[in-house]
Design brief:
Layout lengths: L6 H10 L43 E6 L4 E8 L18 E4 L9 E6 L23 E6 L4 E13 L5 H5 L5 E13 L2 E16 L1
Parallel strand pairs: 2-3, 4-7
Antiparallel strand pairs: 1-2, 1-5, 3-4, 5-6, 6-8, 7-8
């Protein structure tokens, strides 16, 4: 199933240059380099019998990443008036946001969740430690229908915004996958030079 191509991919590529930066003045940790990216972008081979079926479409309402202390509600994000992907509002009670034109977590395809690394004068954002994740660590998404979709990290990358891998993030895949995106790298004015991208695959889904 095709979710984004052509013009739509160009739109999200532009949005990726801006996503998750928060603007304004962040805390002292906001400008630190994200953790090193893994050597390979490919997922580890599934063990025999490990293939997990996709789940029905249901909006994500919560996100937990135990390894980095994330436990956040998830809001819906669409497109801004200029055609770029919306980002969560800069506010004290920072939340992650699911891009509603991507599959919901657990559906076949790449589900995309965005978050800030800093939120202006409020300090650290919900994804401030995203770059510390490692392969195999767990990402849990709570869906509106009561299902918990559990993913395992397959890759963590820090990439220059000018080299954002649009097709790898938003393009077709034949199994349920997840993308978590924020900013990282060196601080440049009111933003950051890089993006941190976490790739993960579905390992289980249960009520």
């Amino acid at each position: 199933m095709r979710y984004l191509s052509g013009r739509a991919l160009a739109t999200v590529a532009l949005a990726a240059l801006l996503v998750g930066c928060g603007g304004g003045q962040g805390s002292g940790t906001a400008g630190q380099q994200a953790g090193p990216s893994s050597a390979s972008s490919s997922a580890p081979p599934a063990a025999k019998g490990e293939q997990v079926s996709s789940v029905g479409r249901s909006t994500p309402v919560g996100l937990r990443i135990p390894a980095i202390g994330v436990d956040t509600p998830v809001m819906r994000l669409g497109l801004a008036a200029d055609g770029t992907v919306q980002v969560p509002p800069v506010q004290a009670h920072d939340r992650a946001g699911w891009y509603r034109h991507s599959p919901t977590p657990g559906q076949t395809g790449p589900s995309v969740i965005l978050g800030h690394v800093t939120v202006g004068a409020y300090g650290d954002g919900v994804f401030r430690r995203l770059g510390e994740l490692r392969r195999g660590e767990k990402v849990e998404v709570r869906l509106e229908n009561g299902t918990d979709a559990v993913f395992a990290v397959t890759d963590v990358r820090t990439v220059a915004k000018s080299d954002f891998p649009t097709k790898e993030v938003y393009g077709d895949v034949n199994r349920p996958e997840l993308r978590l995106i924020t900013c990282g790298g060196a601080r440049t004015g009111h933003g950051y030079r890089d993006n941190v991208i976490v790739f993960a695959r579905l390992t289980s889904a249960s009520p």
